[in-house]
């Protein structure tokens, strides 16, 4: 299967999927250059289409692999970065064992942290809430990351499969009644990233050791 990762159809990646299997998508999230936009504006990746320039997307979970196909990314915008959180399809969601103890001694339980399961580029917005067992729960922390560029199983936003070294701007979802709940960024979470701009939420209590080590800030 062929997937173009940009609107101009210049960056192509191929995914090998056996015939008859369900469709799955590339490890890298498509990206539309937003460098000409204001800092807090970006484009939203909506999904995939088999027609270049289309504004409608396919339900990839319903696509059965029975022939070679080519897919093109569909974007919308410009939109506010605060209203463009990473989709849960591209996140690891994990429980913080024992809950999270805040600086004032109170305990958030259950408590959840997130990491990313795709290579992502450009401006990234962390969601304030995710859905667990059908219930919206706050994102309390960012998972720890690895410092080894060859590490394939990093759960944070650091080197390796998760490719945070291509993140340039970091934001947190914040619009309407949705506000950041983040308390902690764990060690090495953004190790080696290319972050140039960060807006940290007022709720943040702790940044662990080396969370932004070797970042090109």
What secondary-structure arrangement, pairings included, does this model have?
Layout: E1 2-4, E2 12-14, E3 41-49, E4 70-80, E5 91-95, E6 100-101, E7 107-108, E8 112-116, E9 122-126, E10 129-132, E11 135-142, E12 167-172, E13 184-185, E14 197-198, E15 206-207
Parallel strand pairs: 1-4, 8-11, 9-12, 11-13, 12-14, 13-15
Antiparallel strand pairs: 1-2, 3-4, 5-8, 6-7, 10-11
Architecture overview:
With 217 residues, the chain is mainly β. Strands 5, 8, 10, 11, 13 and 15 form a six-stranded mixed β-sheet that branches. It has a four-stranded mixed β-sheet with strand order 2-1-4-3, with no helix packed on it. It has a three-stranded parallel β-sheet with strand order 9-12-14, with no helix packed on it. The chain starts with a strand and ends in a 10-residue tail after the last strand. The protein has no helices and 15 strands. The protein has two domains: 2-81, Sandwich (Immunoglobulin-like), CATH 2.60.40.4270; 88-207, no CATH class. Strand 1 (2-4) and strand 2 (12-14) form a beta hairpin. The radius of gyration is 18 Å and the shape is globular. It has strands at 2-4, 12-14, 41-49, 70-80, 91-95, 100-101, 107-108, 112-116, 122-126, 129-132, 135-142, 167-172, 184-185, 197-198, 206-207.
Note the main attributes of this structure.
mainly beta; Immunoglobulin-like
Strand content: 25-35%
Query: Largest sheet, described in full?
Result: 6 strands, mixed
Mean pLDDT rating? 87
Could you say how many structural domains there are in total? Answer: 2
Helix segment count?
0
Q: Secondary-structure element order, as H and E?
A: EEEEEEEEEEEEEEE
Kindly provide the radius of gyration, computed on alpha-carbon positions and rounded to a whole number of angstroms.
18 Å
Structural class of the secondary structure composition?
mainly beta
Q: Let me know the number of strands.
A: 15
Shape: globular
Q: Please mark out the parts with pLDDT under 50 across 5 or more consecutive residues, or reply none.
A: 158-163
Specify the helix fraction band. Answer: under 10%
Distance between the ends = 37 Å
């Amino acid at each position: 299967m062929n997937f173009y990762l940009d609107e101009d159809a210049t960056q192509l990646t191929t995914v090998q999927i056996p015939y008859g299997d369900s469709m799955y998508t590339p490890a890298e999230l498509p990206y539309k250059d937003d460098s000409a936009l204001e800092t807090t504006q970006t484009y939203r990746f909506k999904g995939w289409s088999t027609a270049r320039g289309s504004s409608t997307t396919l339900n990839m979970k319903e696509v059965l692999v029975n022939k070679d196909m080519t897919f093109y990314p569909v974007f919308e915008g410009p939109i506010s970065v605060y209203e463009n959180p990473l989709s849960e399809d591209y996140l690891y969601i994990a429980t913080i064992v024992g809950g999270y103890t805040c600086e004032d001694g109170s305990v958030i339980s259950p408590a959840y942290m997130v990491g990313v399961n795709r290579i992502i580029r450009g401006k990234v917005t962390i969601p304030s809430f995710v859905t667990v067992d059908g219930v919206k729960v706050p994102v309390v922390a960012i998972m720890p990351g690895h410092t080894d560029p060859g590490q394939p199983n990093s759960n944070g936003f650091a080197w390796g499969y998760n490719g945070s070294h291509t993140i340039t701007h970091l934001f947190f979802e914040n619009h309407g009644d949705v506000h950041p709940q983040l308390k902690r960024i764990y060690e090495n979470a953004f190790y080696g990233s290319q972050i140039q701009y960060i807006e940290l939420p007022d709720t943040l209590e702790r940044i662990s050791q080396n969370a932004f080590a070797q970042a090109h800030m």
